[in-house]
Amino acid sequence: MNPGPDRDAPLRVHVTRDACCGADDQAGPLDAVFDVDPQASLAALVARIAGAGFWQFSSSHRCLTGEVEGLALVAVSADGGAPQFHADPKTPVAELLRGRPLHFAFHHRRSGPA
Predict the structure, then answer these.
(1) pLDDT in tens, 75-103
(2) Looking at the domain covering 11-19+33-106, what would its CATH class be?
């Protein structure tokens, strides 16, 4: 009889990010795996990623949006300010991600006339 998943085993969260410049992958990896408590919140995961120094920014790339299949969950900025959550930060990561990777993308918006 299979007892099911080990509830005490860490949740493995695959995280990827866009490069901020041509040699960015030399300064840090573009993907990582974070082991977190299965009940860890989105806010706890974001704090863990920030503490690991995973994100890289440049003068022209100042804000990353954390997404799952294109759905924005959180935005983080180079200035180190508080993350802007687009999903409830208390929601368990396992519920939000459901085994899917969390990707941090730069979104460039044009200003002025098109």
Answers:
(1) 999 988 899 999 999 999 999 999 999 99
(2) alpha beta
